[in-house]
Design brief:
This protein is 48% helix and 18% strand. It has 410 residues and is an alpha+beta fold. Strands 1-10-13-12-11-14 form a 6-stranded antiparallel barrel. Strands 2-9-7-4 form a 4-stranded antiparallel beta sheet, with no helix packed on it. Strand 11 and strand 12 form a beta hairpin. Helix 4 crosses helix 8. The longest helix has 58 residues. The protein is elongated.
Amino acid sequence: MLELMLCSMLTIVPDYLYRRYVQGKRIGREITLYSVWYELRWGITACLVLTVSLITLIFYFHPATKNVTAVFRTISILPESGGRVAKVFVGVNDKVQAGDPLFQLDSTEQEAAKESAQRRIAEIDAEAKVAETELAAADGAIKQAEGAYLQAQDELETKQELMRRNPNVVAVREIERLQVAADGRKGAVDAALANKETLRTRISALLPAQRASSEAALAQAQVELDKTLVRAGVAGTLQQFTLRPGDVVNPMLRPAGILVPAEAGRVALIAGFGQIETQVLKVGMIAEATCIGKPFTILPMVVTQVQDVVAAGQFRPTDQLIDVQKLGQPGSITVYLEPLYAGELEGVPPGGSCIANAYTNNHDALADKNIGTGRWLFLHVVDTVALVHAMILRMQAILLPVQTLVFGGH
């Protein structure tokens, strides 16, 4: 309507003034309801053509959409493993901070595993002390074995010396017996030394490795025990949280509730523009929005991201060929709008619906010294008609509460 009124001022009104003051035709006499089309045919035709052209120009270079939402993400409250609830620390609609405990599962099994790991560590420490004592005993055994070996060796050497001096004094069988005894005592010394080395290896390598394994088992048991206490990952508000002690939760089938982050839906607006405006929408474009949840307010925005794919065309591989006809209606171009100034989205509830306009800016193109006259004039017209679209948005902001409350039946 606004475009029609503007175009009529440039077409129908001049045509009427010419008929009135040049041709002398007056309304009600020469210009009647039956002859108005014939008398003002040039102005009416030009008005219609100009109105259609102006509307096309405005909505193409300054796209608008009603598909704007303060999209927000929710976090499902789930434990890492299923179990029965033992304690609940919060209630419905409570506000929590990151790290606050929400609820705790029954941890009897995890506590038993932790206790078992702790006792295994204590057992290994006791074994280490026993091994130290055995090492001291091994030193005594080595000295005892070495003494017995030296005694046997001395006796053997004495008998051999006597036999060397007088072969008839010592029997050959006795020398062989003493040699076997000395070799046996030598083996006892080697066994004692090997036993000591075994104890050293056990103290320096085996027991520390066993203790490290037990400490790892203790750490794992502590992790499993910590998993039974579910905490808030981010600050936010709990919704649909009706968990009570004794309830069973399962990470696959039964979540405990929903956590709405504090910043959810307050960072940006998500808008869906028509595909015909793909070539116009660019990152950095200035935009404006008005929301139902914040009436009579124009929110200055800026385009920060333009999704380069259309969601309506996506498909998942299946065992059947996709018929393009079944993909539905053409989708929209998803655009992310962020406020120009901090705090602009305060008061807009997450998930609220809005209306948005994006405005093409040709300032850089107009600053080019090599621009032609026709292009210069066209770009000036494009930037000028943005004012019409801005006025329409402000009229929508004024009428939106009336349409919602009165004509919408709310």
